[in-house]
Amino acid sequence: MWVPQLSDTSQPMYLSIADALARDIDSGVLNEGDRLPTLRELASALDVTPGTISRAYSEAHRRHLVRGEVGRGTYVLNRQLLELPTSNSAVALNLGQPELLDLSIIKPYSETLDYWLRGALVGMARSTDFARALDYAPDGGHPAHREAGAQWLRHSLPDAQWQQVVITSGAQHGLMVAMSALTRAGDLVLCEALCYPGIISLAHGLERRLRGVPMDDEGIIPEALRELCLREKPAMLICVATCQNPTAAIMSQQRRAQIAALAEEFDFIILDDDIYGFLATDPSTKPLAAFAPDRSVYLTSLSKSIMPALRIGYLHSPPKLLSRLTSMVRSSVWMPSPLTAQLASNVITEGLDKKLVRIQRNEAAARQAIAQEIFARFELKAQPYSYHVWLTLPEPWTSDEFTMLARANGVLVLSGSQFQAERSGTASRCVRLVLMSPTSQDELRFALTKLASLIDSDPRRFY
Predict the structure, then answer these.
(1) What's 378's domain CATH number?
(2) Which of 31, 118, 133, 448 is geometrically suited to a Cys-Cys bond with 342, CB 3.0 to 4.6 A?
C-alpha cells in the first residue's frame, strides 16, 4: 500500500499528502493506473481522520493527479496526456493558509462531511424509492419525507407526528414562512434584544415592527416580556432557547415554562427556533414549544448539525395553523426540492444523523476548551457544546473597532452591533467568534491567539 513520506509540517496535512503524491508520481514511485489506498486505510496508516485524506485526494484531483471512480476507488492519471505547468509556481499560489480565517459564519465542522455524505448520495441514487425525489411533491412535502422530519424532531419532541410537519427550504425559509403566514404587516414581533441578524432583516422586509426583549444569562427575562405585553399586543415571539445566537445562553426549564405561560396569558404565538437544540448540555431538555404546544410552531433544520448545503428545514405546527403554513410555502417557493428532502430523509432514516451529531458535539467540546484556555483572562459566554462564544472586550475597545482591526489582521468576526434588534445608540463591546469554521483545531488556535494578542493592544494606536 502506498504511504506518503511527509516532510513539510508547516502547512495543513492534506496539502502535504497531495504534495507527496505529486512527488511520487514524478519520480516513478506511482504509475498511471495505480490504485491509491482507501480513505480509511490511509487515514489509519497516517493516524489522521478520513476527512483529511478525502481533502488530500480532492486537492490531488484539482491538480489533475488522480481520478475517482464510484465503487472502485482513486487511481493515478497519466500526467503526460495533460497540459500541466512546467514548474510548481502556478500550483504554489493556491497552497498554504487562506488569506482570511473566517470565524463569522456558524456552520458544522466540515472535515469529515464529504466522506460521510458521498456514501449517502450514492445510497440515495440506488434506493428503490428514488423516483419520488424527481417529481413534484404535495403540499407540505412527501409523507415519507415528513415522517423522516418527525423522526428527527422526536429527539426533542417525542410526540411529533408527521402530519404536523411542514418541510421548508432551510431554517431561514422556515422563519419567513412562519412570520409571513402567522402575522400581518404592522404587527409587533418580539425577539431577544440580541438576536440572529436574519430575523432583523426578515422583519423589516415584511414590514413587521420588531422589538427586542431584555435578556440575562438565560435569555429573555420573563418580567421584561410581561411589561412589554402590558404596553402593547405582540403577535409573535421568536425565541432561540438553546445555545442562543449570539450570546450562547441556554434557558432553564423553569424559564421556558414562564415564557409559555405568558404566551397563553397574552395570546401570542411562539416561534421556537431550536436549530441548535442538538447542542444542549442536557439532551433531555424540553424545547420551549413543548410547554405551549397549542400556540407554538417548532422550527429546526439540518444545516447546523449535518451539512450547510442540506437546505431542508422542518416546521412542527398545531393542526389549526398547518394550512396557513403550507400555503405560504407554496406561495414562496412552490415546494422545497424533493431531491434534497430525499437525501435528508436517507441521512435520518439510516442513522447517519446520530453519528454526525456525535462528531459535531465532540469537536465543539474540544474547540470550546481551546477558546476557554486562550481567553481565560477575558469575559466569555459559552456552552460546553456550542459552536460559538460571545466575547466581551475590555475598555476602551468597541466591537466595531475590534472587528475592523481583526479583519485587517486576517481574521473575520462579527461585531455585537450586528445583533441588536433595535439600534440603541449604545456602542457594543462584544464580538461573536465561531469556533467550527477553521479546518483544524490548530488553525483555530492560531486565529484565537491572534485575536487575543490584538485585544491586548491599544486601539488608539490604530484610529
Answers:
(1) 3.90.1150.10
(2) 133
Rounded to whole angstroms, the Cα distance separating 343 from 133 reads 9
**Average pLDDT score, the chain:** 88
Q: How many CA atoms lie within 13 A of 186 on its CB side?
A: 0
144 beta partners: none
* CATH number (domain holding residue 331): 3.40.640.10
Structural domain span for residue 367 = 101-113+354-461
All three cell numbers of 80, joined, read 503526460
Model pLDDT for residues 199-221, shown as the tens digit of each residue:
999 999 999 999 999 999 999 99
Per-residue pLDDT tens for 114-156?
A: 767 777 788 888 877 788 888 889 899 999 999 999 999 999 9
Encode burial over 402-433: b for 16+ CB neighbours within 10 A, e otherwise.
Answer: bbebbeeeebbbbbbbbbbbeeeeeebbbbbb
Question: Kind of pairing, strands 388-392 and 411-412?
Answer: unpaired
Between the CA of residue 207 and those of 179, 184, 204, 237, 297, what are the distances in Å? 11, 8, 5, 16, 21
Would you report the helix, strand and coil content of the chain in percent, each value rounded to 5?
A: 45, 15, 40
- Nearest 5°: phi and psi at 23? -60, -45
